[in-house]
Amino acid sequence: MPVHHSAQAGFAAQAATYERGRPDYPQAIQEWLTGHLGLGPNRSVIDLGAGTGKFTGRLAGTGATVSAVEPVAEMRRQFTKVLPDVPILEGNAEAIPFPDASLDAVVCAQAFHWFATKAAMVEITRVLKPGGALGLVWNARDVGVDWVAAVSDIITPYEGDAPRFAKGDWKRQFPADGLSPLDEQTFLHEHRGSPDRVIVDRILSVSFIGALEAPERDKVEARLRHLIATHPALANQPEIAFPYRTCAYRCVKLPTE
Hints:
By secondary structure, the protein is an alpha/beta fold. The protein has ten helices and seven strands. Strands 3-2-1-4-5-7-6 form a seven-stranded mixed beta sheet.
């Protein structure tokens, strides 16, 4: 499965920025992993499309046996700096390097929209045990806040054909053969830190922004910094809270007859 050009170029160029700027996840997601996905000791899970490991630590916190799969080499290198004790394998959603019916869960955080294909669904279903869960998680920017909407207005003209969670194209793969219907839970979340970290680094780590040529990427950064300097909620603030909605979806592999 080829990696989308925006993901390959953008994530390769901005792997370190991705690690700095991407938000963590709310504590409620830990309870979702244990209670809704059934993760815990003696359970096995992979983080598919693990990136730099922003979500992998949450999986490890359940006590489950965790591995990661990531196709972009630069992201794997960043991952090993952050989580040296978690094995990370080269692979993708259409070629998952695990045997049939070997996993209790497959989790994709900030990733599934990149590989939402029929072939990927078949492969994910293949590696899950009967009763095993597929979990999909996204931190979605809360554009109901005016300055967050202004940030989105700055970057949206650049998105081109890049898959995005907000577009909803990924939902076309559901319902999927051999899997139960999706259920959804939503949690409110904030990413606190300096405007440089939670706005500038966060947006420069967006795939299609990271893939821009340097002069155009510099224009985006300048517009973000202008917004920070002039918006009443952001100007002269050493720390801000970037609001998110964390959307978590689950389906389960049905028993074979």
